[in-house]
Design goal:
The structure is a single chain. It contains 15 helices and 18 strands. Strand 17 and strand 18 form a beta hairpin. The relative contact order is 0.05. The chain is an alpha+beta fold. Helix 10 runs parallel beside helix 11. The structure holds adenosine-5'-diphosphate (ADP).
Amino acid sequence: MAEKPFHDQKIVDLANHRADPADGAFGASITRGQEHTLAANEQVMDLLSHILVDESLPFYVTALDGTVLQVNDFYKKLDEALRDVSLAPGQVEHVGKYAVPSLKPVVEDVLASDTTVRSEEVVHINGRERVFLGRHSPIRNERKEIIAVAGTYEDVTVQVRGIEEANKTQARFQDFARASSDWFFECDDNMRIRSLSDRFTAIVGQPASLFVGSKFEQFGRLGENLDGRIDGPKAIQSRKPFREQLFIINEPNGSELKFHLSAVPVFDRTTGDFSGYRGVGMDVTSRYEQVEEARGIRENLESLLAELTRKNMALDIASEQATSALRAKNEFLAAMSHELRTPLNAIIGFAEAFEQQTFGKLDEAYIGYAKDIRKSGQHLLGLINDILDVAVIESGGLSLKIDDLSLDVLIEKAVHMNMEAARQKGLNIDALEVVTEAVVRADDRRLTQILVNLLSNAVKFTKEGGSIGISLSEDSVKKQVDITVWDTGIGISASNLAHVFEKFHQVKDHIYSRSQEGTGLGLHISRELARKMGGDLTVVSVEGEGSRFTVTVPLADGVSADDLDFI
Ligand code: ADP
């Protein structure tokens, strides 16, 4: 709100007074025709002739009863400008003839205060508001008695409105400053802080007055901003504006507050001399923290990437080494297996001869020992054969001899090799008899090996009185045949089922399985072989009910092996 610039404020709406021509512009209504003491007035007029009146302002003199004694030309002009609205106190020709009580309140004020009374009067003329400053002063005789009142009216509308505007603008900018997250500062020509806005106090937590009089460097330091610029000092030297100069304040708890200072130089309007800077400080602490954090993350990522690349290279080297080590291992195993098999076959052969007493009669105990030697030798030979197979498969050196084979011949051969063991165990083997005319394309030795392995497992894992068998299912569309070796044995738990094809996997979770011989390589090798021959090996099993191992083999192209013989 605009400040009240004058002592008093009386508002007279002249429009309301026009109806009565006796009304004056200022003060209360004027009644005319009253007599007044001419002697006293003459005394005043006499006095007035000795007073220098400022002709640039409307001027009047009134007797103590409110009668207007004198007005100047300016007053008359103003009166005319106001047309039918007269400024107080009435028409000029009435001066000296009428009692004009309209100025009575003014006169009373002057008499009461015994000094000059100032009043601001707002006058509505043709709907527009004008503000007049009235100065009403006592006129005294030689005995210092007040004998009249003289006054001037000054049109101060422009000044008053100017002050009001200025106040409004200032209030507006104060609102902006309060609402802004930035703070404002003023420095003198020596760069000493002259003023700081309240916002600075809110951010720094210390009264702004503590910093007034000091230079920025005394409570903080300048630094490079995010663009790597430090423009402030150079700009100040050459009295130029600067933007985004980083300014850092260390807080008592050790953390840093960061600001961007931007300012413009101020020059004296009249002399043109440099008189300081005016500017704004923006709190950029969190922005810098975010940038720092992002930089940290990027550096971390970069080092992670470097580490990853390094590890990858190491992995490549290791994998290269592992591949060549595996190759070397497999080559070694293949060579060793050959070397081992020859003496092992001799051991087995001689043990068999002792068992059968080929070289003469032996003590029962020795026959038993010979049997143990043979069995152990055969187990060892099986193991070596399996290891050799794995080595050959893994080194990619497996060579297959694919032929068209009569499936029933092949199955019969495999069944025959397990028949004795099945019979000895008292298993029902009726379902092992298979009649088929199917011709498959496979490696004879390897497919037999698969079937022997599946059948020997079926025998091994089926308890006395159980059944084992073979079933076939041809798919002429897919041109393949499924050979399923099934049993009503112990079955395989779901958790083990997923692992039976892994190398060296043997189910150890039931007593029965532990009593069985084996290497845990048979199924692994069988599946690899089946796949290499263009088929597969799968299993379905329910623990306690039995298992069904199915080997899929491609069928020959509708031509049987027998037919081939005639071509
Ligand atoms: P192993 O030479 O030990 O028999 P395999 O690879 O042929 O090795 O078999 C792996 C494991 O799978 C066996 O030890 C056994 O636990 C399980 N298994 C294989 N066939 C059967 C089956 N017909 N019934 C139950 N378990 C079986």
